[in-house]
Write a structure and sequence with these properties.
single chain, mainly alpha
């Protein structure tokens, strides 16, 4: 998958998640938690691997900053959602990047890096967003959201890695057939 597609997918997931919450409120959190936020974290993880050693920190900060700006710009009518989104987004993606990098330096395989970093990011996002967006802390909502984002992330990550591995096996078979 190209870097442009990953960046576009990342931004699209952020924008759609924020517009959904701005439009439908807490009800939209079910969809965003299972589908959009895990997709956003998956794209971020693949970009992290792709950019390692190539101004990684600058690119990750840029990705998070641009995502935050998009989230705010498209949600100004629902300013609390916009502010909550930017706060949660910046904190969760920063935690995700830091944990992902520590895991990578320790030799953790891709699925493990994605899983552990997404767990920490899911918790951060699930605590910060509802507190800022809705003005209250609901432990049950935060736990349910973190669990949903983590499980959605497991599914997205497993599917993505299975597709990559299948493509690698096909490419290997094609190379063997050529020789």
């Amino acid at each position: 998958m190209s870097t442009r597609v990953l960046v576009a997918g990342f931004m699209l997931a952020v924008v759609v998640a924020n517009l959904a919450v701005a439009r439908w409120g807490q009800v939209a959190l079910v969809f965003t938690a299972w589908v959009l936020i895990p997709l956003d974290m998956l794209a971020r993880d693949f970009l992290h691997d792709r950019w390692r050693g190539k101004r990684l920190v600058l690119r990750m900060v840029g990705l998070v900053a641009v995502g935050g700006v998009f989230a705010a710009a498209l949600n100004m009518a629902a300013w609390r959602v916009a502010v909550a989104s930017v706060c949660a987004f910046v904190l969760a993606m920063t935690v995700n990047a830091l944990v992902f990098e520590v895991a990578a330096r320790r030799g953790v395989r891709r699925f493990g890096r994605m899983t552990v970093s997404n767990l920490f990011a899911s918790v951060m996002d699930s605590v910060v967003f509802p507190v800022v967006a809705f003005g209250t802390f609901d432990a049950w909502l935060s736990v349910a959201q973190a669990g949903s984002k983590f499980c959605g992330g497991l599914v997205w990550s497993a599917v993505a890695i299975a597709v990559i591995e299948k493509r690698k096996r096909k490419d290997k078979r094609d190379d063997l057939e050529k020789h």
